[in-house]
Amino acid sequence: MPNSRTAARRPSAGKPGRPPAPVDLASSSASYYARTPWWAKVLVVFLVSRVVTTILLLIFASMQAQNPWTAASPDYFSFASIWDGHWYYIVSVAGYPSDLPVTADGHIGENAWAFMPAYPMLVRLIGAITGGSFAVVAVWVSVGFALGAALMFYRLMALVLPGSQALYSVVLFCFAPLSPILQVAYAESMGLFFLTLGLYLLLQRRYWLLLLVIVPMSLTRPSGLAFALMLGLHVIYRWTKRRTEPFPVPERVAAVVAGGFSAAMGFAWPLIAWAVTGSASAYTDTELAWRASYVGYGELVPFAGWIAGANWWVPEPLGVLLLILAVALFACAMFTPWVRRIGVDLRLWVASYALYLLAVFFPQSSTFRLLMPMFPLWGALAQPRSRTYRILLVLVLIAGQVGWIYIGWLVGENDWTPP
């Protein structure tokens, strides 16, 4: 006889057992996504963005005609090492000149002192260890720091925005029109990584650790003076709010020291250039050489570059009027609700860096690249939750990549649009 307990569990004839409950795929997927670590989500975003950008760069490489750096239709690594990548190559193999080059009319010409040492020296070190060529090592160093910057950017945005908005900020960062620069032989990836890490430590009030970040950051891309200005404004703000937001003496001392140290590092590279070349203006003269083809040679006068650039690009007085309007609109944007939500400290950084660019830069085709350190503003555009908005914005950014590679990176005949 069959076991009574087994029989009791067996469905009777003509009465089929209860069908299994349907699986809620949407709920299951949402649960799996919720359990996925933040770094894995960022990694997926980064990898997808690099696939898209790599495909675009390969398409344009196949279209590239012979140019001063490569033959026609170069391979990826050769295509990724043109423009300033060649200057970084010169620095990595030959260092910096002790005698500044002089043009036929007696002015300092373009030379390696315009390019800071941390990135090319790191590429040289890794190349010496691995035996890899400059082009290959430089690209992988850039990609590695780009991934680090994306991971740190999520951590930074997560301090001021909800998790979904922080992740979408990373999406915008990775798909931005200038994001191809993150995987070529340029120092931007390395500079953005240290800048993001520095801003993260600032928001965490870890001022002493900040000192360790300021050194490589300031020797990778020009950022020390802008970061010092931001720290000074940060100290003033915390001092005015000390009754409601405590600002203990140890933190005051640490923040002031960090600001002073960042200012010193902002002057370190010009001082090193002076020591090596014997010319106190070696660095500034070198930087001014790049704008000479537009407005001729002259002295570095704060804020004069943008005025001269406005008048060069647009007939007077319309150019200056448009510049004033752009500055005014930017200032107003800093007080919109979306920008205010990224927090005071990140807004202080964006404003400080914008003021630094206005003081020392001449607007030309590399302007968009030099705006990349304002990346915390992606957090303002990441706040709308509409799926349609988010998808369309990413598509617009990818279209921007196509436009930037075509205008800025692809080398044409008599090209005057360096990225």
TrEMBL record:
Region entry Disordered, spans: 1-22
Pathway: Glycolipid biosynthesis; glycosylphosphatidylinositol-anchor biosynthesis
InterPro entries: PIG-V/Gpi18 (IPR007315)
Cellular component aspect of the GO annotation: mannosyltransferase complex; membrane
Location(s), subcellular: Endoplasmic reticulum membrane
A GO term, aspect molecular function: GPI mannosyltransferase activity
Record's keyword terms, sorted: Endoplasmic reticulum, Glycosyltransferase, GPI-anchor biosynthesis, Membrane, Transferase, Transmembrane, Transmembrane helix
Protein's GO biological process: GPI anchor biosynthetic process
Main location as per UniProt: endoplasmic reticulum
Residue spans crossing the bilayer: 38-61, 125-154, 207-233, 253-274, 294-313, 320-339, 351-371, 391-411
Membrane topology (UniProt): Multi-pass membrane protein
Name of the featured protein: Mannosyltransferase PIG-V
Organism: Glaciihabitans tibetensis
